[in-house]
Amino acid sequence: MTNKDFKELKTLQEASLQKRLSEHRQTLRDLRFKLASGQVKDVRDVREAKKSIARILTLLNQNSKNNEGVQETPAVAEVKKTTSKS
Predict the structure, then answer these.
(1) What Rg do the C-alpha atoms of the chain give, in angstroms?
(2) Domains contained in the chain, CATH given
(3) Single pTM value for the model
(4) Is the four-CA dihedral 11, 13, 19, 22 of positive or negative sign?
(5) Which strand (E) or helix (H) includes residue 24?
(6) Cys-Cys crosslink for 72: which of 62, 63, 76, 86, Cβ 3.0 to 4.6 Å?
(7) b/e for 3-39, b at 16 or more Cβ within 10 A?
C-alpha cells in the first residue's frame, strides 16, 4: 500500500473501510495458507497485508473516537476516582 493508497483510505466511509478490512483479512488468510504449503514466493506480501489491516483499523478507531468524542464511561470514571485516592 503506497502513501497515495493511504490518502485514499482516509476519504472512505466506515462501511467501505469495513469492506476493505474484510478483503485484506481474507487475503492474509489465503497468503498464510499458501505460505504454509510453499506456494508463496514473496513473503513480503504477508507483511504488506498485515500493515494494510493495521492502517485500516487505525482509521476506523480514529473515526470512531472523532465521532463519539473522547468521553469516559461512568464505570471508567469511577475506577479512576477510587484508584487515585492519596
Answers:
(1) 19
(2) 3-83 (1.10.287)
(3) 0.69
(4) positive
(5) helix 14-36
(6) 76
(7) eeeeeebeeeeeeebeebbeebeebbeebeeeeeeee
Nine-digit cell string for 40: 508463496
Q: How far apart are CA 2 and CA 49, in angstroms?
A: 12
Tell which residue, 17, 16, 15, 11, has the closest CA to residue 52: 17
Contact (Cβ atoms closer than 8 angstroms) between residue 59 and residue 10: yes
> DSSP letter at 40?
-
- Of the candidates 31, 14, 17, which has an alpha carbon nearest to the alpha carbon of residue 66? 14
Give how far Cα 46 sits from Cα of 21, 38, 41, 64, 75, Å. Answer: 15, 13, 11, 27, 39
Q: At residue 66, what is the residue type? A: N
pLDDT, mean of residues 7-13: 83
